[in-house]
Amino acid sequence: MKMIVAALAGSLLLGACAAPVPPAPAAPALPSPEQQIQDQITAMAAPNQNLATARVHDDDNCFWFSYVGPVETTELPLLTREGRHICAPKPAEAEAPAEPATAA
Q1: CA pair distance 71, 74, nearest whole angstrom
Q2: Which of 9, 31, 44, 75 could form a disulfide with 35 if both were Cys (CB 3.0 to 4.6 A apart)?
Q3: How far apart are the C-alpha atoms of 48 and 26, rounded to whole Å?
């Protein structure tokens, strides 16, 4: 009986000396499409524009942001460092079905 207890204690002690196996590295998380768009806009936008308030206007499909001045808040177009407007791609328009040919 003492031999079994000694063998069990010995295996437990030797097991405690073994190096732990590190976990497998996790696959890198891909950013969401929204995060990818935010990252692209941040990279293109000129400094000193409030990107937290940027949004797309329906009338021109371009990004605008709110500038909070000392007197009023103004909507301004979001510009690149070169001074160009940052716009979203135009949505694809559905084509009208072709008219059937009539035999005369």
Answers
A1: 10
A2: 31
A3: 37
